Amino acid sequence: MTDNSVKGTTAVYGVIGCPIEHTLSPLIHNTFAAQKGRDMKYLPFLVQSESLGDAVRGAQALGIRGMNVTVPHKKDIMQYLCDVDKDAQAIGAVNTILLTENGYKGYNTDVIGVYYAIRNKGYDVKDKTVLLLGAGGAASACAVMAASRGAKKLYIANRTLQKAQELAERVKKYYDTDVEALPLDGIYDIPACDVVINSTVMGFGKNVGLSAIEDKNFFKDKNVEFLIDIVYSPWETKIMQDASEMGVPNVNGFGMLVYQAVAAEEIWFEEKVSIEEQTKLCDILTEVVKN
Length: 291
Ligand code: ATR
Hints:
By secondary structure, this protein is of the alpha/beta class. 37% of the residues lie in helices and 20% in strands. It has ten helices and twelve strands. The strands form two sheets. Strands 2-1-3-5-6-4 form a six-stranded mixed beta sheet. A six-stranded parallel beta sheet has the order 9-8-7-10-11-12, with helices on both faces. Strand 11, helix 8 and strand 12 form a beta-alpha-beta unit. Helix 4 (110-119) packs across helix 5 (137-148), helix 4 (110-119) crosses helix 9 (254-269) and helix 9 crosses helix 10 (275-290). It starts with 10 loop residues before the first strand and ends with a helix. 2'-monophosphoadenosine-5'-diphosphate binds at residues 134-139, 158-160, 163, 184, 199-202, 212.
């Protein structure tokens, strides 16, 4: 039996991280490559921290045009890049690199991923009031998304107020957006909000069945239009159930995961992917991952 799925013309892309065996990126990118009919393979690469510089130089020597970068290299990789785009600088982390004539340029496509996840459901943050719950690692991309995509006002609410304040300051350094930090239990005092993004750990792991918004009347009282929870395991978290009960459309974080990959492909292949193609990919992968 012969296998001609990899030919002399096949382009190699991949993801570097440590550990790497649980990554869904090869599934997402290779499925998309099949959907688009691209002659490419996307592979996982286990790279230890002490080998990161060698890995980047090696990838460049091999002519690898694009890579994703995951834990624990998202910050450290910046020292090996020739340029870092504004969103990634604001977040302080890179998850995608593109080979240019001067070396690799870094991007953070989580920003676009969360934006597409909201947009593809027919909502937007432009001129809207956004409430971001949480101020950890995943929150930075959500905060930068809201600021860079024209939110009228961004509230960042976190159990530890200081972390919310630090994130707010970082966002304000890069974007001219009205950002306000508040403690998590202060959310009931805000006048209204259109879009809620949950990036806290409430709802998954040992916090299954819990929500960062304890009183579900919040959704009605504040006229919330849309909620996104950035996790997808469990598929439907308590905050999503509460939102549904109060009649508020909502989505989990699986789309964000798929669309950050789509955004990386847009950078590598210098082409826009239509909403139809994006949602088709997300639907195909949902069938695989949800079941
Ligand atoms: P990630 O990288 O996934 O964002 P993280 O950086 O550990 O993970 O952030 C977890 C978020 O969940 C933080 O905003 C954290 O709040 P603190 O900054 O106060 O720790 C929030 N979180 C964790 N446990 C929580 C709890 N019991 N109630 C409310 N928020 C909680």
